[in-house]
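Before the break, one more example. Copy the sequence into your notebook; we will annotate it together after we see the structure.
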Amino acid sequence: MKNLFERNSRKRIRVFKFLLFFLALGTAFGLRGWVSQQEIVPPQPSQDASALSGEGADEKKVNLNQASLDNLMTLPGIGEKLAKRIKEYQDLNGPFPTIESVMEIKGVGSKNFNKIKPYITVE
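Here is what the structure looks like once it is written out:
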């Protein structure tokens, strides 16, 4: 009787190992197929990168003396509040003589100025 149970146990272990092997094999092939189906998209150069490199930078510059609030808010680091300050400053003091003069406005320090410098002009 003892021999019968041991024989059944060994058989069950073999079947279990057999099933486990095919489960692992199926998982490996399934993952391999899933990984190969994922589409790899190469990064595209953005318009901002071309502006920073100087290609067509003049076309994209915002004239501080003629810009609307919406145009000013397209500049990096310039939100609605700061755009309003720029327009208010301009209304009180007239047109900006240089791009550096925008740093006289509260909130436009050297850090913000360096962010917007490639994108602004005062022509």
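The chain has two domains: 1-40, 47-121. Residues 1-40 form one domain. Try to locate both features in your own notes.
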